[in-house]
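Table 4 source record.
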Amino acid sequence: MADADPDGFVQVIRSELRLQALDFWLRNPDYLADQLLDKVAIGELDAASYLPLAQDLLDGSEPNLHWYPMPKWLRGAYEALDDAFSILQSYGLAEVRRKGNPPLRYRNEFFLKPAGVIAAAELAKDPVLSWYVRQAELVNLVAGSDKGGRLKERQYQQAEYAETQLGLQIASIAPMVRERLATQIQERGVSR
């Protein structure tokens, strides 16, 4: 907690770069599934538990409805957060604060309020929207404590992501991830 932090917040993300990276995985289940496969491959996650989740991210009942592509800019996947955060802020769910003094660069910090936690719990109960909470939990799991720059490095390890031209939407890697998933399922003897 820093001196300038708002009172009563529950959690904070102190880097827009980190939030943009998290948002990318949330909106691109194929890239999120690929990260789960990476964690299973190095033994950080249990294959029997997480390979079926990766498969569901790729082939669940409505994966295309959960895919919201992002354009690539200078630091990777990026989309302005002002509109989304203005809605969250107007309902008292979250708050964004800008830190820094010119000529130094400003840094945005994003604070979750208690009302935001309650709203997320309600969202988790909704049969149509509960996927969002589950996906956010998986994003948090694969991101761990890595800072925004490290998360972007991990995203740039995907050729499709790295080779996307500036201003264009980052394309899906679902076919490649399905192949990796099939290989890991076979190698580990996990039932589908």
